[in-house]
Amino acid sequence: MTVMEQRGAYRPSPPPAWQPRTDPAPLLPDAQPYRVLGTEAAAQADPGLLRRLYAELVRGRRYNAQATALTKQGRLAVYPSSTGQEACEVAAALALKDRDWLFPSYRDTLAAVARGLDPVQALTLLRGDWHTGYDPHEHRVAPLCTPLATQLPHAVGLAHAARLKGDDVVALALVGDGGTSEGDFHEALNFAAVWQAPVVFLVQNNGFAISVPLAKQTAAPSLAHKAVGYGMPGRLVDGNDAAAVHEVLSDAVRHARAGGGPTLVEAITYRVDAHTNADDATRYRGDAEVQAWREHDPILLLEHELTERGLLDEAGKQAARDAAETMAADLRERMNQDPVLDPMDLFDHVYAEPTPQLREQRAQLQAEIDAEGTH
Amino acid sequence: MTTVALKPATMAQALTRAMRDAMAADPAVHVMGEDVGTLGGVFRVTDGLAKEFGEDRCTDTPLAEAGILGTAVGMAMYGLRPVVEMQFDAFAYPAFEQLISHVSRMRNRTRGAMPLPITIRVPYGGGIGGVEHHSDSSEAYYMATPGLHVVTPATVADAYGLLRAAIASDDPVVFLEPKRLYWSKDSWNPDEPRTVEPIGRAVVRRSGRSATLVTYGPSVPVCLEAAEAARDEGWDLEVVDLRSLVPFDDETVSASVRRTGRAVVVHESGGFGGPGGEIAARVTERCFHHLEAPVLRVAGFDIPYPPPMLERHHLPGVDRILDAVGRLQWEAES
Predict the structure, then answer these.
(1) Nearest chain A residue to B246, by CA
(2) For site-directed labelling of A185, which of A297, A355, B201, B322 has its Cα 20 to 30 A away?
(3) Which stretches does the entry tag as region Disordered (chain A) (predicted)?
(4) Which DSSP string corresponds to B30-95?
(5) Looking at the partner chain, which of A142, A183, A184 has a beta carbon nearest the beta carbon of B77?
């Protein structure tokens, strides 16, 4: 007798109990970006940290200006500036311990420099003499990544591997607002949450993906809200408030280190410069908007706080400017030297051992170069 | 650790054994992919690995190929040796950006500081009655990407030996597994000493004097069958199994064609823009004065892979190979 035939006697049982696998409420970001500077929370901030952040912001601003100037002199092929976003760049570097890893995008050379990387090495990609100008293991800085969001799964995998090996290592991955539309953003966050990998994602929402504003990028309440769908906490922070970004990232790093899994942080900031030196931002935004953000500048915000609390005087400001100028002068001088290139390098790192075909091609190029020399 | 004697073993079992031996020899080796853990893979190639080595060493991942390969990149950056399974040829495409933009070039962009020893196992090819998206021959895409090794076995022994070499390689290897040979058996016995085959060497599977069939993977048994049938026509065909498409063994292939003076390249992949064009060009460049006829290609048609009830018309078979051999200008000899 089938179920249908014994219909009269059949009592449908209720489906197995269903409940959400995670309570979404604690994962939700706050309604407003978290701020420290100019709020009561500022009183709790460590003066030493604030002074350090200030010095790094001033240095970072000067670095951005110098790198942009180098494009005009033809010393850099291109420079995507992080002017206006220095608080995010610097706080990301300072929130990590030495053994942790940073996964930057192409706009994040400043974060790499703030982590200790030589600026000339950080700019190699943009000068164009090689792709990655440094050994990533030296400062635990992954290669600057150009295809958007594709570095995020790398950060997850590295953090996961470190945890499997029992190492106390956290990975911090940087991405922009445009990058959150990429599939790899989704896959990375999903893997991170499923594996509870010790990784932190920092979205620098600077308002634009080249020319396209956020409204055309997403309909989400905020980018931080996306975290909830993956089962990880989302945090929203004022990206121009260096103390706030540093605190939120440090909390997220600590949480990851303690085995609490990943966090998605959205920092609200603004790309004051054009996308790169090759871009014309006047085609897609007005001066008034830029001016409003210039007034909510990360350096001004921190300078105001430090001055109010008597932690910074004119001499302190001058010292920060002098240190930045020394860095810029050194960068300028070294970037004005032509890099020494060996075309044979093109063949030497494709494989551990060149294939027979590459050996032939290497010999061909060598012969061409030798012939050039004899003309 | 109990070893079940497998006499003789299938290609699938040899692949399992290769991963098992590699995992036992090196704790850095991690297997990951869709259904590779509890289930042992849809083709059972990872059968028993999660049980023996734990789920941290043989991991069921979320269903996302870019995520699988992307996280494998990060794991390799940290010193692990991921062995990634892509469930089917056509399901590997979402991972192409990671493969092309990162896996293939990380060593190069970091001047050797960050090699990525990742093995990407891809069941490929047709002939198993698979519905749409389950039978692609995608090797031309991989071959066209500098920085990848592209390897494919045709025998049970090579399945073991080449996969061990792939996992041991410090470079990324796309390891193409001819899925219709998964259940094939030959004399390989897992209880006998097991050898690692170096990557990049072709092998002459059958010696002959009349013409060379250059082939690989699933087409190797077809070519051997064709060579047997060709004896009735009076042709003594040599069969070269490439085993590795990248690096390409020009030496073995050219030596064979110089001996025979004629060559046909055979593969399932489409002919236009397929591996056969590259191989024919290489042979012609190196053996022109030894050739009695143009190098011919027997390939899949240049069509999306057919539905299963029509695939026999698409796959290069014995008759199509013999037709091509017949067109190698024999009349000029008499």
Answers:
(1) A355
(2) A297
(3) 1-28
(4) EEEETT-SSS--TTSTTTTHHHHH-TTTEEEPPS-HHHHHHHHHHHHHTT-EEEEE-SSGGGGGGG
(5) A142
